[in-house]
Specification:
With about 325 residues, the chain is α/β, with parallel strands linked by helices. Strands 3-2-1-4-5-6 form a six-stranded parallel sheet, with helices on both faces. A three-stranded antiparallel sheet has the order 7-8-9. It has a three-stranded antiparallel sheet with strand order 10-11-12. Strand 5, helix 4 and strand 6 form a beta-alpha-beta unit. It is built from nine helices and twelve strands.
């Protein structure tokens, strides 16, 4: 089993740690945060629930305690406030990433790094540029959560288990994300074909409003924040699933953010497309069937991110 260090122990970081203790991925979890009292409280609370599982170490620490980590998860940053876009957080969180990266890389140069802090695509890009680490060791959680939200929405609409749905959200984890419907399938049928199949079986079902479904995906985070103040359950589950995928014996394909090198005509930006990941981190991009309009949406999303990056102090 693995040693996993979590940097940033706010709602997301703490929930990731808690969720990890319900899995058999890690034998050691280290929590690091500038707020030492918060770390001590979270460690005590989480550790006291581990008597119901096989032994696991949960401790608080400093950057040097990340040494020997197989995975380092970065959730550090200011939280998004109600009504605030992810991109408005950008420079503040870029500065935080710049401040913590040298200490982490010095302590854990061989770890796989998962960037979760928002805006995740830009912070993944910044970390990739300043860390000096091989690109395969770095990935952002990207649109993995958006894809989960999409599958949740489609599952509810079609009344079918989410694991029968192969549909994805591409682009920025934010306002320019989109669904490549050309490559979306339910049980081997396109979304439109599956709808027709249900009608042929006498199922009483409304047509899928694809624009409304994409709006549901994009606005879910903001709605949750407006209702309860923060999002952390679903993103924690997504990040823990990522940990499972990169510690598994074989490769998987998922939507995470990593550096682009000409795929779909996009260079020098981190953005989410289908990505092959496994025990050695990022292995490359997997192609998805897309029409020209969808490729243009992906390029537009990349351009929007590049426009923000161009305004930053890196």
């Amino acid at each position: 089993m693995s040693k996993i260090t979590i940097v940033g122990v706010g709602s997301v970081g703490a929930t990731i740690a808690y969720t990890l203790t319900h899995k058999s991925i890690a034998s050691e979890i280290v929590l690091i945060d500038i707020n030492k009292e918060k770390v001590a409280g979270e460690v005590m609370d989480i550790k006291q629930g581990t008597c119901f599982r096989s032994p696991i170490s949960v401790t608080g620490g400093e950057y040097e305690d990340a040494a020997g980590s197989d995975i380092v998860i970065i959730t550090s940053g200011m939280a998004r406030k109600p009504g605030q876009t992810r991109l408005e957080l950008t420079q503040t969180n870029v500065n935080i990433i710049k401040s913590i990266t040298p200490n982490l890389v010095k302590a854990a140069p061989n770890a796989l790094y998962i960037i979760v802090s928002n805006p995740v695509d830009i912070l993944t890009y910044v970390f990739t540029k300043i860390s000096g680490l091989p690109e395969n060791q770095i990935l952002g959680s990207g649109t993995m959560l958006d894809t989960a939200r999409l599958r949740c929405g489609l599952s509810e609409h079609f009344n079918i288990a989410q694991n029968n749905i192969h549909a994805y959200v591409f682009g920025e984890h934010g306002d320019t994300s989109f669904v490549p419907w050309t490559g979306a399938y339910i049980s081997g049928l396109s979304v439109d074909e599956y709808y027709k199949y249900l009608l042929s079986q006498g199922t009483d079902i409304e047509p899928l409003d694809k624009e409304k479904m994409e709006e549901y995906v994009r606005k879910s985070g903001g709605q949750i924040i407006a209702n309860k103040g923060a999002t952390f359950y679903a993103v924690a589950t997504a990040v823990v699933k990522l940990c499972e995928l990169i510690t598994a014996s074989s490769d998987s394909v998922t939507t995470v953010s990593s550096m682009m090198h000409g795929e779909y005509g996009i260079e020098d930006v981190c953005i989410s497309t289908l990505t092959v990941i496994g025990p050695n981190g990022v292995k490359g991009k997997a192609p998805l069937r897309m029409n020209e309009s969808e490729v243009m949406k992906l390029r537009a999303s990349a351009d929007a991110l590049k426009a923000i990056i161009a305004q930053l102090e890196l």
